[in-house]
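Good morning N.,

You mentioned wanting to compare the apo and holo forms, so I went ahead and generated the holo version with zinc ion. This is what I fed in:
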Amino acid sequence: MTEHRLAALQRRLRAEDMPAIVVSNTSNLRYLTGFEGVIDDGINAACLVTQDAALFYTDHRYSDVAVAASEGTPWEIRVQRESLYVELCEDLKAMGVAVLALETSVPYGRFSFISEQFFGSVRVVDGWLDEIRQVKEEEEIVRIAEAAAVTDRAFEHIVAFVRPGQTERDIALELEFFMRRNGSDGIAFDCIVAGGPNSAHPHATVSDRVVGPGEFLKLDFGARVGGYCADMTRTLVIGTATDRHREIYGAVLAANEAGLAAVRAGVPAWEVHEVARAVLEERGLAAHFTHGLGHGVGLDVHERPTVSPKSHHTLLEHSVVTIEPGVYVEGFGGVRIEDLVVVEEGGYRLLSHSPKQLIEI
Ligand code: ZN
Ligand code: ZN
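and this is what came out, ligand included:
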C-alpha cells in the first residue's frame, strides 16, 4: 500500500547519490512503512533505507505485529537483540555502505552514537521526507477530512455548551471529551481556549480564568483520525459585541477570505501570506498580525509547507494547509479565524465547514 512512498525516498537517494538513510522520526516512520499498531510515540524503532533495500528495526515488544504488518511489502524486519543502533551499524558495514544520511530531527545523543559506531561518514539531510509528505494521497485527504468533520461537530457542540462563568479549562476539557467520544483517536494538539486578554496571545495556554461578558473567546483545536490531524480556530464574543469587537473580527474575516481566495497550486506560499496581510494593512491592523498565515497539516499538525513571509515553499496540488490570520491587541484580546483546505489546481477545497460569522453567546 505504501511502497510508492518508499520508492520516492529511494529515488531521492539515487538522485543525491546517497547510499542509505536512517529514518527515526515517528511520523516519518508511520508514513514510510504504513504499519498500523507497530509504531508508538517514543518507541524504539528505526528504518534503514538503501537504494534497493528497506529494513525496519524494532524490539521484541513489537516483533510479531511488525512481521505481520510487513507481509507482502518490501520491508525486512530486524528485531533488536541488545542495541538497535549498534546492530544497524553492523548491517551497514555488512552492506558496504560508506556514507549515511540522517534526518535533521535526529537527537544529538543518537547522532553522536551513530557517528561513533558507524565506520563511514554521516551527513545530515533536511526535509527529504517532508517534501514527499507535502503532497497528500487521496486516502490521507480522506482521513484529514474526517478529522476536520469531527472538529466541526465539536465546534457546534461547544457553541451550545459555553456560558459566562465557565473557566477556559472547563471549555477545553469539554472540547477534548467531545472529540474523543465522537471519533477522534485523541487530539491533534492541546486545545487552545483563551478568553479576554488571554486571547491576545496567539498560543495562550489554557488557564482557570473565568470567561466573562464583553470578551473574545478564541478556540483553536483539532481532532485526529487514523493518525491524521485537523486544525481549526474560531473566535466567539461572550455577551454583546462592541464596535471594537466587530472592527477587529471583520478585518480578520476579510483577511481569512482574501487568503483563501489566493490559494491555488503553484503559488509561492509567501504570496498568500502577503495577500492576507495587505487586507489587515489597509485597516491599520497589520502590526497586530504577528505570525505566519498558515502551515501544512498531515500526520503532524505543523508540517510543510510554511505559509509565511520568509517561506521558500510553493503550494502544491493536494497539499493540505491552514489559512489563519489573526489580530492580537495586548490587554484587550485577539481574534484568529483558521480554516483547513486542500490545495487544488485552480483553487482549494474547504475542509473546515464551521460558520465564520460573528457569534455572540
Ligand atoms: Zn490552529
Ligand atoms: Zn494552525
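The longest strand covers residues 215-221.

Happy to go through it together on a call whenever suits you.

Best,
F.
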